Amino acid sequence: MDTWRTLSADGNIVTLKRFNDLDLKPLTADEVVGTELQTGCALDVETTGVDRSTDSVIEIGLQVFYFHPKTGEIVGKGESISQFQDPGRPLSGFITQLTGIQTSDVQGQNIDWVAVSKHLTSAQLIVAHNAGFDRGFIDRYAQYPAVPVWACSLKHVGWMNHGFTSASLPMLAAYHGFFSNAHRALVDAQMVVHLLAQNRSYVTELYENAHRPRVFVKLSNTPYESRMILRENGYRWNPPTKTWSKSIAKEELTESLERLPDIYQGYEPQYEAREISPTENFKS
After folding, report:
1. How many domains does the chain divide into?
2. 3 and 11 in contact (C-beta within 8 Å)?
3. How confident is the model at residue 104, as a pLDDT?
4. Taking the mean position of all CA atoms in its chain, how far away is CA 281?
5. N or C: which end of the chain has fewer CB within 10 A?
6. 128 and 267 fall within a common domain
7. Are both 230 and 266 inside the same structural domain?
8. Per residue in 96-131, is it b (16+ CB within 10 Å) or e — as a string?
9. Do residues 29 and 131 both lie within one domain?
10. CA–CA distance, 241 with 249 (Å, rounded to integer)
């Protein structure tokens, strides 16, 4: 199968269709009760920056969808949320350029975190395209039980094994024949659902990987000079604790620990490794 799903027969033209809305059957939660279907929440947040401890959410997009975990079929969509949050200070020019959101858009606005929490509580699976980023912010604001499993459509699907050389959401969308110029939270959340719906194997792979036994690895006192190596190896910086951490599949632990001497550059590695449940995926 060619990487470009809408490539013309002569191999010279790729057709892209603007993404406007999810072409899925509207369903209610009551309609899936008693079935084998599960409830998913795809979400995305726009923020004032990347530091989950000091930056703020300025927009959330959440899309409920219903899927069959065994077959991978996404059969319908539920409610959605698209709301702004006033961070209490003007937005930077960079954030406005990136998202298209103006300070005037968020002024006086508040996200209904009770409604967000209600949807997360009702879900069995929460999906974000960079779950390590999104969960760090969501867990600051939303209150929900440790029931839903967090899945990452960026990391829990082996996009390169499917023939794609980029796993960014805009490029994956283009590979599958659709696009959107709007870098907005609800659009991105709905595009994730639409992308996963293109191939049932994406959903089953995402679901299975999200439920695999994992280990949370936290590194302390790493050399400053190793920050690029740490990022390349998938670690994320946590400013409050001044540590680098990541969650990995249990079977990858030995290989990951063997790389610590390169990271610590002659110093004694200082790390903690503990098994986590799927509900702790991407938790800080």
Report:
1. 2
2. no
3. 97
4. 11
5. N
6. no
7. yes
8. eeebebeeeebeeeebebeebbbbbebbebbbbbbb
9. yes
10. 23
Sheet holding 236-238, edge to edge: 236-238, 243-249, 214-220, 271-276
Tell me: do 201 and 219 sit in the same domain: no
- For residues 196 and 242, state if they share a domain: no
| Domain termination site, one of 151, 186, 210 | 210
156 and 265 inside one domain: no
pTM of the entire predicted model: 0.90
Side-chain-facing half-sphere of 116: CA atoms under 13 Å:
27
CATH number at residue 45: 3.30.420.10
Helical residues (DSSP H) of 67-221, grouped into ranges: 93-99, 103-106, 113-122, 131-141, 169-175, 185-196, 200-210
Distance CA 192, CA 186 (A): 10
**Nearest to residue 206, comparing CAs of 247, 153, 277, 130?**
153
Task: Give the Cβ contact number of residue 257 at 10 Å.
Answer: 15
Residue 238 falls within a domain, yes or no? yes
| Residues 135, 265 within the same domain | no
CA distance 213 to 241: 25
How is residue 54 written in tokens? 């000091």
Residue with tokens 């790390």, as numbered in its chain: 271
Count how many residues are written for the chain. 284
- Give the distance between the most distant pair of CA atoms in the chain: 59
CB 42, CB 188: distance < 8 Å: no
How far, in Å, CA of 170 to CA of 192, rounded? 10
- Choose one of 173, 191, 210: the last residue of a domain: 210
Round to whole Å and give the CA distance between 198 and 176. 8
Q: What is the mean pLDDT of each run of 10 residues along the chain (284 residues)?
A: 88 95 94 95 96 92 97 98 97 93 97 97 96 93 92 96 96 96 90 98 97 94 95 88 90 94 94 94 83
Residues 21 and 147 in one domain: yes
